[in-house]
Fold this sequence. Notes:
Layout: E1 25-34, E2 37-55, E3 63-78, E4 86-95, E5 98-101, E6 105-108
Antiparallel strand pairs: 1-2, 2-3, 2-4, 4-5, 4-6
Amino acid sequence: PGPTPPPQPGPEPTPDPTPTQQIQFNSMKAIKVGYGTYKISWTTNFATASILKYGKHPDVLVNVESDAEEKTSHSITISSLELNKKYYYQVAGIVNEIAIGSEVESFDVEI
């Protein structure tokens, strides 16, 4: 057999259509502000709506609070939490009409 032809260059990789839209969640905190009431705060690298999902199990975040105002410094206060219980939460932002969430974090509700 003859010499092997040189490999043909493959197609160029498709660039990410929105490279600036990689949302980053920073400074996530749960701060006690009252009896059974906590303020969840976080920042994002660009302005987006605020979404907070929370619950008593990390895989079942059934409660949702949101704020449609687009901003980079977010906070949502949740109340009527059970004392001496651990709560799990995830924050999210909207990117191209899709909710993108953070890692799940937790806090203990103290008396």
